[in-house]
Design a protein that fits this description.
With about 425 residues, the protein is α+β, with helices and mostly antiparallel strands. The chain has 4 domains: about 5-85, no CATH class; about 100-195, 2-Layer Sandwich (VC0802-like), CATH 3.30.2130; about 195-315, Alpha-Beta Plaits (2-Layer Sandwich), CATH 3.30.70.2510; about 315-425, Alpha-Beta Plaits (2-Layer Sandwich), CATH 3.30.70.3190. The chain contains 14 helices and 15 strands. The strands form 2 sheets. Strands 5, 6, 7, 8, 9, 10, 11, 12, 13, 14 and 15 form an 11-stranded mixed beta sheet that branches. A 4-stranded mixed beta sheet has the order 2-1-3-4. A hairpin with an 8-residue loop joins strand 6 and strand 7 (about 255-270). Helix 4 (about 55-70) crosses helix 5, helix 6 (about 100-115) crosses helix 8 and helix 9 (about 225-240) crosses helix 10 (about 280-290). The radius of gyration is 35 Å and the shape is elongated. The chain binds zinc ion. Zinc ion binds near residues 16, 17, 19, 20 and 95.
Length: about 425
Amino acid sequence: MDLLKHLKKIVISIPLCDRCLGRQFSNLMPTSDNETKGRVLKDFLFMNEMRAREENPRKSLKIVKALAESGHEPSLSFMKKNLGLDVVSKPCYVCENGISSLIESATASIIEKSSEVEFKTFYVGLTLPVSIEEKDEKVKSFFKLKFGEALKNELNREIIRKVGKTLQRKPEMKRPDVLFIYDAVRKQVSIQINSIFLKSSYKKLVKGIAQTKWRGLDSENTTPSIEKMLEEVLLPAYNGSGLKFHGAGREDVDVKMLGEGRPFIVEILEPRIRNVDLKKLHLEFNRRFGDMVEIAEFQNAAYSEVPRLKLEAEIHKKSYRVVFETERKISEEELRELSERFTGTVVNQRTPLRVLKRRKDKVRRKVVYKAVFKRLENNLYEASITCSGGLYVKELFHGDEGRTVPSVAGLLNTKIKIVEMEVTGIEGG
Ligand SMILES: [Zn+2]
């Protein structure tokens, strides 16, 4: 069926406002808005009937009357002037002439709501009354129209354009700073605020600090954590609802983290403030907690950097300094042999007993790239180890009841007690 026949059939069957008519043919001309398209189509049909009037006046009159009923001005005045008829326009079958006011009230509500939160980019989501979307789809399927735009699409586009223009902000579909959701049934706006990500690295200068907050049932646990310290500095600055800590691996509570520090990304949930002086933040952190934990300057990070950080933590080499005590005295010769034996060695490590509750029991193959052992005094020794990320270093020393092979305790055939341990470097950190 050609366009003209389609158009006549629709106009005669149901009253549609300009916008709802234009939408059914939207993709035939992507430029200009649906209201203009609908108006142009009605004008075109009117002119066509003016020309066809001589051949079939009754049929043409029927179409012009239908046009007038759909609110087409030239048709209304033609009916009045030439036939003395005051045609009463009927409400649009799809929207009951409510679309423009829906766009206006959604735009106004969003603009009002937007003052509650700081953002650069935004997007809009809509909840529409089911009936209006259903009717629009019905028109498309009944008249077999394949080149129309979805109603929600049009409304979204129009509201986004108006909001963006008024507030001078950029729309962004993929991870905008904020998403406004307008509920057209309840006439309410809700806001979804996307997280802010900051990257930095930390040095843990003293023992006894956890990386993240204690999440077990035992709420009595009052071990200080880096996550908690970050919360105290970052949440008031960003007016956020919470914080997530993503570390490039972790060390135990009793292990210091030195060298260049361990990289991390901190995610601030639902920040109502986004413009924050990052330099001030890390200075404030170091002023308050710098005797225990020191962090590097913050940088903005993207959401996609979090999985990369976790992956790199597995790949990157780590260096440790371990001070340990043995039950029997170890000779210089044995220490030299140990250094040679461990340098360039593959370690088979079953999940340590102490983390077995939280982690799956499996064998990990990790590498010790370099190991140097030396005596400090009597039965006290120091080892410098460089190994794969993810190797459990304590177990490499005490052997974990034979679950880590080879181990220092296993090779020396003696018991080992770790006295002190620190991370001295992380590749890429
Ligand atoms: Zn309409």
